[in-house]
Amino acid sequence: MVGYSKRLLALSTAVLFASTTISFADAPAELVAAAKKEGSLTTIALPHDWCAYGDVVAGFKAKYGLEVNELNPDAGSGDEIEAIKANKDNKGPQAPDVIDVGFAFGPSAKKDGLTMPYKVSTWDSIPENVKDADGHWYGDYYGVLSFQVNTDIVKTVPKDWADLLKPEYANSVALAGDPRASNQAILAVAAAGASTGAKAGADAGTAGLKYFADMNKAGNFVPVIGKSGTLAQGATPIIINWDYNALSGRDTLKGNPPVEVVVPASGVVAGVYVQAISAFAPHPNAAKLWMEYLYSDEGQLTWLKGYCHPIRFNDLAKNNKIPKELLDKLPPAAAYEKAIFPTLDEQAAAKEVITKDWDKVVGANVK
Predict the structure, then answer these.
(1) Which positions make up the signal peptide (predicted)?
(2) For the structural domain made of 143-270+337-361, what CATH number should be given?
């Protein structure tokens, strides 16, 4: 993962392309016909301000004319898995066809028989180390954990994890998910642990729990799920979340209030998310068509507009398919030079420690 990330980051900043007129290929006609016969697609855990998913959903609907039933946009990766399990025999609107989950959840979902294999037309351009050989799951985009800061309230912007423990940040810091279920929040806890010098995996998980226990005891931790609304209202003036969510949120607020996005000086943990189709999908062809759209040039570039590095970035860059104006909006490469890409085993080890011991060690019930 480290080599892959360095190549990706180098391309994102060092290679400049002129704006390009891009034509997008269509999915196989027989798949389109079969999906239209099913008539709809059910997604879960796709907030519209996450990776420009609002534009992704709108683009898919406009291109293929299918309805999209969007379940629980604020759900975490664990919630998505539970939704599949709870609806194995349910073909109604509460059964998700597709999931977008943290890296560690893909292999475990396959192991539990919850996913359906499918290889998209652009399969060969997805790096080997972020996809299941049989097509049960495949990486879609990545980002790094960052601090999203309301500078109307926070006058001294924190630059590193250690800063967040200072008294000046009392009642200020929130996670963007529940660390017992949300992949984003789990990795945020692990990133805090990594900033103390702990190695990736269970050690980072344990150190991260201690860090948040200290933050909670200091009165700095706010046990609610931080969002742009709570940031703007001042309830959570500092939110720890993915850089792409923070940058998108900054743009959405349009300076009211002003927001600064900080990639911390240490503990820069990157996370890859993956897509999968439910083994019990009520609309399997619509699910496959959704995947074709997400992994097409059109879908990948839409994610990039939402500040997410799409998994096919290298392929798009090599073929001069990324407009220069998109590249110019990405954060500078220097902020990402220390990025750590935990392996699946390391993520799984950290997740086990954090989800099991959060209540006991930290004692803050995030809602």
Answers:
(1) 1-25
(2) 3.40.190.10
Written as tens digits, the pLDDT of the chain (367 aa) is: 333 232 233 223 222 223 333 445 578 899 999 999 999 999 999 999 889 999 999 999 999 999 999 999 989 999 999 999 999 999 999 999 999 999 989 999 999 999 999 999 999 999 888 999 999 999 999 889 999 999 999 999 999 999 999 999 999 999 999 999 998 999 999 999 999 999 999 999 999 999 999 999 999 999 999 999 999 999 999 999 999 889 989 999 999 999 999 999 999 998 899 999 999 999 999 999 999 999 999 999 999 999 998 999 888 988 999 898 887 777 766 777 788 888 889 999 999 999 999 999 999 889 8
Under CATH, what is the fold of the domain 17-141+274-331? D-Maltodextrin-Binding Protein; domain 2 (3.40.190)
Which tokens hold the place of 332? 């500078």
Is 0.90 surpassed by the pTM of this model?
A: no
- Quick one: CA dihedral 269, 275, 278, 282, positive or negative? positive
How far are the Cα atoms of 4, 79, 95, 114, 244 from residue 277, in angstroms, in the given order? 25, 15, 12, 8, 24
Question: What's the rounded Cα separation, in Å, for the pair 169 and 273?
Answer: 30
